[in-house]
């Protein structure tokens, strides 16, 4: 696991996949040994996680960032700003306190609208679709926009 982590940190998805495959091979060997299988009863679930992780890396290898290189150049290596934005966009409409259920399509469409409102772009888009709709005073104050969203 340490090798997998090291290779992912350094942006080397191919080597990380190879190490996942090696680990999967060794776990299969343990599963074939009855004594090992009995002693380590969590091998099969762990192997499932390794296989899923291997698939995830393979499917996303073009997007894996070389964090070591970024770190060496003093660049940002955190995704907290992205997580914060996501939490902000979805917090009101999708919080657990709301007793609503959303289809994937409905949630996707609502998030598109919410993002346009937060970016103060919704009225322009709405007016293009419905040009004869009554005119209202444009709101530029971010606090009012945030409260409405």
Describe the protein's architecture and organization.
It is built from 9 helices and no strands. By secondary structure, the chain is mostly helical. α1 runs antiparallel to α2. It is elongated.
Please describe the topology of this protein.
Blueprint: H1 2-9, H2 13-32, H3 34-39, H4 43-60, H5 67-72, H6 80-94, H7 104-118, H8 122-129, H9 142-148
The coarse silhouette is elongated
Total count of helical runs of at least 4 residues: 9
Percent of residues in helices comes to: 55-70%
Biggest β-sheet: count, sense, barrel?
Answer: none
Tell me how many strands there are.
0
Distance between the termini: 43 Å
In short:
The protein is mainly alpha-helical and 149 residues long. The chain is built from nine helices and no strands. The radius of gyration is 24 Å and the shape is elongated.
Features:
elongated, 149 residues, 69% helix, mainly alpha
């Amino acid at each position: 696991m340490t090798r997998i982590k090291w290779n992912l940190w350094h942006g080397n998805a191919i080597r990380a996949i190879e190490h996942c495959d090696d680990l999967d091979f060794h776990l299969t060997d343990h599963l074939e040994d009855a004594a090992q299988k009995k002693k380590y009863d969590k091998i099969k679930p762990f192997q499932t996680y390794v296989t899923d992780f291997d698939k995830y890396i393979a499917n996303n290898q073009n997007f894996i960032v070389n964090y070591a290189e970024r770190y060496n150049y003093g660049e940002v290596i955190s995704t907290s700003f992205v997580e914060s934005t996501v939490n902000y966009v979805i917090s009101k409409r999708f919080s657990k306190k709301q007793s609503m259920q959303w289809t994937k399509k409905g949630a996707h469409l609502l998030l598109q609208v919410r993002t346009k409102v937060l970016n103060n772009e919704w009225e322009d888009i709405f007016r293009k679709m419905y040009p004869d709709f009554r005119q209202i005073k444009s709101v530029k104050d971010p606090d009012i926009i945030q409260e409405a969203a």
